[in-house]
Write a sequence for this structure.
């Protein structure tokens, strides 16, 4: 309970601000809708997304809200079912990248000395490696990368930036009075890190999670678009792959290509809006100044 209480206070303060922030509200609503679709895709998909039983190349209609593919598949059903894999990749990669960033960044800052030098060097090496070319090389070597392989590659290549940010923030907090007092009381290192050091960094940790999730959405979709994922699974990236390979735009089937592209942009926008809001929580200088505050300053 002692560990959860400070985290609860930090989370309550963050969400109190987010309720008043239009960007956070918009991002939360969009993300909530996508999470509901992810959890229950069968509620929203009217047809079997893989069934090649409809008339090919049908435009907008009541039966097919986004038309059909050149194979006779329902585009709207593919879009709905593909939401699950795309959102899951974002959430899983975001979670594990954040865990690695917190573990490595905060451990380096709190420990100092040789531990800090070693972990910082490792972080810097990963940070300067060209990320997307490395991802392409790994997935191309395996060929037809599975869901979990894509997750693994994105986690391995996506944690370093967050670790660097969290290390810098932890260094600024390491010698604060409340941390020194906890050490003087004889509290364990685990207690000091989890109860005293991490809670003030909650908003930055959440912002790192959202940034990693956004990176995962775009990188995974790009990999699947160029055919380095499993093209037989349902996702927005594989929809783009099949639409591009069958020249959807040139053959009069623009929605086959535009729908997943717009969906990726919507999910990315939701994560970006939430990320901006949490950045404002962790850095008050980024918060917009109200007209009332400006009038007080000018007066």
């Amino acid at each position: 309970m002692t560990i959860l209480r400070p985290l609860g206070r930090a989370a309550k303060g963050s969400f109190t601000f987010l309720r008043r922030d239009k960007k956070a509200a918009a991002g939360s609503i969009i993300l909530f809708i996508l999470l509901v679709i992810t959890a229950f895709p069968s509620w929203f998909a009217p047809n079997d997304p893989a069934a090649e039983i409809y008339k090919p190349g049908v435009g907008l209609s009541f039966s097919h809200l986004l038309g059909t593919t050149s194979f006779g598949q329902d585009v709207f059903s593919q879009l709905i079912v593909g939401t699950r894999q795309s959102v899951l990749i974002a959430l899983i990669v975001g979670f594990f990248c954040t865990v690695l960033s917190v573990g490595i960044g905060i451990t380096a800052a709190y420990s100092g000395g040789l531990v800090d030098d070693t972990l910082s060097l490792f972080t810097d090496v990963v940070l300067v490696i060209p990320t997307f070319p490395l991802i392409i090389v790994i997935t191309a070597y395996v060929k037809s990368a599975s869901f979990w392989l894509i997750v693994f590659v994105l986690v391995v290549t996506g944690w370093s930036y967050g670790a660097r940010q969290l290390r810098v923030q932890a260094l600024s907090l390491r010698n604060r009075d409340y941390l020194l007092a906890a050490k003087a009381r004889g509290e364990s290192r685990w207690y000091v890190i989890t109860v005293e050091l991490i809670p003030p960094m909650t908003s930055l940790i959440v912002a790192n999670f959202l940034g990693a999730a956004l990176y995962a959405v775009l990188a995974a979709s790009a990999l699947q678009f160029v055919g380095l994922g499993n093209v037989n699974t349902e996702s927005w990236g594989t929809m783009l792959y099949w639409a591009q390979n069958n020249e959807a735009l040139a053959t009069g089937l623009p929605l086959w290509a535009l729908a997943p592209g717009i969906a990726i942009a919507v999910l990315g926008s939701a994560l970006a809006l939430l990320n901006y809001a949490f950045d404002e929580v962790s850095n008050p200088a980024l918060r917009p100044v109200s007209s009332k505050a400006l009038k007080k300053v000018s007066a």
